[in-house]
Structure formats: C-alpha cells, structure tokens
Amino acid sequence: MSLNSSWTPDESSETLLAEKGWLQGTVASSIAYGIGVTLFFMCFHLLIRQMTRTNYKKSLPLLIYITIDFILGTLFMASLADFTQFAFIQYRDYPGGPNAFENAMFGIPVDNVGNVCGFLMMALSDGLVVWRCIVIYKGCMVPVWIIMLFPCLMFAASIVMGIMWLLQLTSNSPFFTSTNINYTAPYLSLSLALNIIITIVIVLRLLTYRHRITKALGSRFGAQYTSIAAMIVESAALYSTFSLALLVLFLLKNPISASFIELLPQIQMLAMLLIVFRVAQGKGWSQDTMSRVMASKPSVQAIRMGDFGYSLRDGSKTFTGSSGIEAHAVYKGNDHDSAEAIVEEGRLDTY
C-alpha cells in the first residue's frame, strides 16, 4: 500500500517542518534523558561510596546538586511528553494543528511546569560552569575577580531575564500583556553566550596548563587533566556547541530550532553530570592540581639502569632511558669510585 498525499494535513510546509522538529525533538530528548539517568546513578554511586564523616562537605553539595538537577530533568521530560500528547493526540483537531496548539496553549499548567524546570536547570548549569571556571583560574597571575567579573554579570543578567521570561509566560499582569517585548530571545542569547564565553576561557586556561606541563615533564604527565577529552568535559563544550547551534537557528527563525529547544535541558544535564563524574572520579581539575602534577615527576630511583643506553662525550656519559628521561654523568679524572650522585629536577649528575 502506497502513501497518499491527500492524507497530509492542509498546512504550510513551514508549519509541517516545525511540527516534525517538535516531535523529533521530543524523541531525541527521551534518548538524552535515558543517557542522563545512567550517568546520574553512576555519579550518585561514586559520591556515596567515597563520602565519609571527614569529607562529606565536599561530596554532599555535589550529591544535592545532581539530585535536584535530575529531578528537574525528569519533571521537564514528563511535562514535554504530556504536552506533546495533548497536541498530537488529545487535541489534534485544534484549528491549525499541533503547531498552532503550541503557540496558543503555552501558558497551560503542564507547559508551565516544563518552563519552570527548564529555567531552573539552565540556572544550575550556568552556575556550575561559572564555578568550574573560578576553580580552574585560581592561582592565575591575574586576580580571579577580574577574569570572572564579566561572566558573573552575564550570569546575573541571565537570571533576571529568565525570571522576566517566566513571568511573561505565566502572568496575566498588564505589564506583560501590553508590552511588545519578547523576553525569549534576550534570555536565551544571554545564557547561551555565557556558556560559549566560559567554554572558551576554560579551554584557553587548560591549553596553557598543558603547554607548561608538557614543557616541564613531557606529554605523558597530567594527561588526565589536559587531554582533549578532559577539556571538552571541563569546559562543558558539549553544551556550548549545542547552544551555539540553537542560537543561530533561533535568530534565523528556523522551525527546526523548536527541536533544539526541547533537547536543550537534557544536554545541559548531560554536560553537568559529566563534569561531576570527573570530579567524583578524582580526575576533575581542582585548585591544587597543577602543584600535584608537577610533584609527580619521576624519581631516578625508579628508573631501571638496564633500560639506559649511553654515548661517550668528552669524559662524560649521557644516558637516555626508555622513559625519555636523560641522566648526564660527568666524571672528574678516572676515579669512578669517588663519584657522588646528586639528583635535582629529574637529572642525575655525578661528580
């Protein structure tokens, strides 16, 4: 049996595209939510397992954070599923179809629940990336408050704009019903721009650390903190990349932006849970990470002398081990028995 074009609703191609994007965005959100559930329980297990009476102040805030974020994500997903069911099943004969139903019924209770949860999730995710940026930039030559002043102002502005956006959706006040200002665009733009800026400054800082560690110790050391994967997670690049795509589509008024908006809260939750997962594993960047990495220089006592090869050079010997560490030995005269070993900064000098 073949498909008949007469079965297609009498709607414009743009409206049909928006409805397709909405429905496919709901499906994609469900998939992302399923990944988030798994990641949440992994983080929860790690944090509970390592929590003791002495370090609970470190693990408990993260535990509370991911639990609140997970509850909000679950409520948002339930609201989205219920609202989609209303539009495509229960009230599918609404004049203009599901897309018109969405535009006309955005203030009903089930939609308000989703909007409030989405706003709170965005505020929590923005707050977490700001906190991670502060942690990573501590110890910088430039005072942290100078670096974070503009991002913090943007964060505060996005919170204020988000509250105005919520009030516009849920309030019947004449102030919001009579104004022509749509707070959706400035709210999304502020929050998404904040994440993009934070991602850039975190990546720049981690690249600087990577250069210093590689120069001092070699590329093998500190890889868990400065690898490409670590930078992507620590900077919430997943969320920022998605945010950039959403911002472009939204400003271009592309109907597909609807599916990106529905998926946004779940992407936020995934990006934040990945950061917490690294912290729970002990791989997340902390204030003393740089000093700990620099203190992990290999000790010459651990180097097996059988791994060395050497070449004679003006009465001296230069040993090169399989680990890539050089040990330079210089002898005064021919009395090798009177050699005294001095170990300093990863070099072995014998006089």
TrEMBL record:
Keywords: Membrane, Transmembrane, Transmembrane helix. The chain crosses the membrane at residues 30-48, 60-81, 113-137, 144-167, 187-207, 228-251, 263-280. It comes from the Eukaryota. This is Uncharacterized protein. It comes from Suillus discolor. The lineage of its organism: Eukaryota, Fungi, Dikarya, Basidiomycota, Agaricomycotina.
